[in-house]
Each structure stands twice: as C-alpha cells, then as structure tokens.
Amino acid sequence: xxxVHFVPFSSLVQPTLWHELTRLKLExxxxxxxxxxxxxxxxxxxxxxxRNTGQExxxxxxxxxxxxxxxxxxxxxxxxxAAYGVLKNYNTIDEFKNADKKALLNQVADEIWExxxxxxDTSALTRFLVITYADLxxxxxxxxxxxxxxxxQPLWEIADEWKLAxxxxxxxxxxxxxxxxxxxxxxxxxVRPAQTGTGVDLAPVEDYTxxxxxxxxxxxxxxFLDPSPDAQVPGxxxxxxxxxxxxxxxSETDTIRVI
Length: 259
Prior knowledge:
Number of helices: 6
Number of strands: 11
Helix content: 25-40%
Order of helices and strands: EHEEEEEHHEEHEEHEH
Low-confidence stretches: none
Structural class: alpha+beta
Number of domains: 2
C-alpha cells in the first residue's frame, strides 16, 4: 500500500508582524531574547485557474502570521483556525545565525508530545517556532519558521485510493458538515451519522471515546481543516493529529477514515 505523504506548511508573513515586533523590541523586549507567544492562522487549501492555460494552480499550504498574532484573543479571519506558536527574537545577526535550531525545534516538539500524552489536548498539534533578528537601523528583518511533526513508526499507509467525500457521505451529510463548520470552525473534529435526521454530528477530537461509543468503526470519521491544495496529498496538520490518535487511542486507530 502507498505511504501517506504530507504537504509542509509555507509561512506567509504580513508586514504588520514586523511593525509590531519593532514596537515590542523597543518597548517591551529590549535586550531580552525570551520567547513570546504568537498566533498564526490557516484555512482550507485552494487553487486558482490560470487564465492563459486554463489549468488549476495550487496556492500552497499556507500559514499566515501578522502583527495581531501577538494578541492571543484577536479575531480570526472567516473560516480560518488558529495555530499557536512562539517567537524568539535575537539581539544580533550572529546570535540569529548561530542559534541551536535543533534544540529549539526539539523543545517545541516535546511540548507537542506532552500536550498529547499528559493533557490529551489537540490545541498544540500545530504548534510552531519562529526565530527572528530585527535590524532596526536598516529596517531589515530576518526570520526562520519551523513546524515540528511527530514521525509515525510504522509509516501511515493508504488502505485504498483517495476518494471524493461525496462517495462516502450523502449530499445532506456534506451540507451538515459545511454548515456546522462555518458556524464553529475547528482545526480537528469528529464526525458520525446524526442520531436524528439525515445529517451528521460533530464533536471535538478530545471526545473520541464518548462520541464514538456504540458507533461502528466504519461509521467513524476523523476530520481536519486541510491547508493543502492537493487532493491527493494532505497538509501538515494531519501528521500530528494521527500521532495524537495513535498515542491516545492505540487499540481503536489501526485504521482511520479521514476527511
């Protein structure tokens, strides 16, 4: 069976991030290189049609960070979800270039793993790291993003070819998923046939055991907001979601249906 591959995140930094970092550097951080929380956002991947060739062009698996990301309570764009990370700003270009990226990356990965095994919390599954250096005299900014992912052993495999959602769900069920997601966007959630009516019920992944009680395995679905524009290659968030499910529910997740 083919191995599941994942599209990595690509960072999109808005100019407002540098404006706010400059303010923080001058007024708050000064010479401190302590990490500060930063919230980024992502939404469903999409393509656009090339007007010359008529072909669909992928826009990338984007995650966006702006100046409002330093405010954890800021409003998110419509149909987008939050990814919570940390920013570490260095005082010199040499400190930035010589930063121990592996150690910093491992620290964030450990935080993700702890959130899975100790808290059973999915909010940290897309946790990220960004290190920066702000040359305020020359108005130059240097940065490096990292998105830790937990590697599965053995690797996940596709039991069958990727299929259209319409082959697994009725039109009424897909409309139900769409309406409920629009009302309350979530990065990760569970889906089961509605207890009443023709739609579906949704629930947080943390409710896996109670939500899927008395639900046959073939009727259980795990869903995530996919930032990948490629229908055959899911986006980066799925990697850590699968790691969460295997760690927390090992006896029930040998096979998982994902939408």
